[in-house]
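Justification of computing resources. Each target in the renewal requires a structure prediction run like the one illustrated here; the chain below, 385 residues long, is used simply to show the kind of job we budget for.
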Amino acid sequence: MRVPVKLLGFVFWLLFFNCAQSQDCLREDIKYENTEPAVKASYSDGETVKLYCMTGFTGVYRLKCEEGTWDTIVERKCAEKKCSHPGDTPNGDFKLTAGSEFVFGATVLYTCKKGFEMTSRINQRTCRAQGWDNTVPVCEEITCAAPVISNGFVVEPVQEYQKDAILKYRCSPGFKAREGIPRCAKFGWTLNPECDEVTCELKSRFGVEKINPEGKTIFRGGESVEITCAERYWIFGTKETIRSFTCQENGEWDHQPVCEGKCGLPPNVDFADTTEMTKREYNSGERVEYICFNKYTLVQSHPYSKYLTCEDGEWRGNIKCLKPCSVSVELMDERGIELRWGGREKIILPHWDRITFSCKSGKSSIGSGLTQTCNDGVMNLPLCE
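Resulting structure tokens:
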């Protein structure tokens, strides 16, 4: 009888212990939105806890643990904090980018009315826990006045032009408008509307024997110049050796005032040769194609990289052939390396080609990697020790 009594007493104690534990309230049973979590994971019967709202929300809760269940003593639900009116900007407007209330997280975007420009760096305000951030943007008026143009006039002038307005103007005979379109901006016109005198310039004297009038290179609209080409040269696009040219009202010559001549044999290019038999003379505009030697790589910066062209009696163009890299087995043995695929007494590698080596048995690489690239005849071999 003594053992069962003790066992029965232990069972009663265990039930009492479990019952006592069940009176605790757990943090995980608190189900209010937008609140900070309670400090402790569990609370004893009779304990109270105060819950605070998350940043950007206002309200408070006070709860009491009653036999394992939370009892609400104070309940002011957590609601988004509200901001006052964000502020109007003169000569501008704003709108909410989302929603319809000035509450925590809301953003208003400001824009300026036509004829005004925003001078503030930031064009928006956001409702924060402490209120609106930034300051109300500022819109300043843009007005451009109608200009006075020497040797020209404004088409359909107005007293003031609004922002982004385009100025239309024309020049007097013998004058032309400068390149670009004047546009009204913050500090006035984007470029000065001016009329420059129409002139033609005599730029090239290559192959020229005589110019009449001598020494003059700038000519007004309607003026003429006579050019005589030197021996074995003639006027561009013709077989004439002497001709007069007239400067037109648009600033262009009536015919190109250039003497063109022939070129001799095309020059030698390092590591390259011509693709066809060459002639003793070439006319202006003719070109010769070159090809790089075997394993050499042509630098192709543009579609005509492989040509030289006869221009004004001279060969013009830029052809460059990049060297390949050569590596012998002896040199690889000295550096303790070998090819991954084995065999070969010597390898030739074109420019920009890559090759991977491996260290011989019992050795490991130091310094540069085992994969190397050929760069115009230069390649850094790895070293294995």
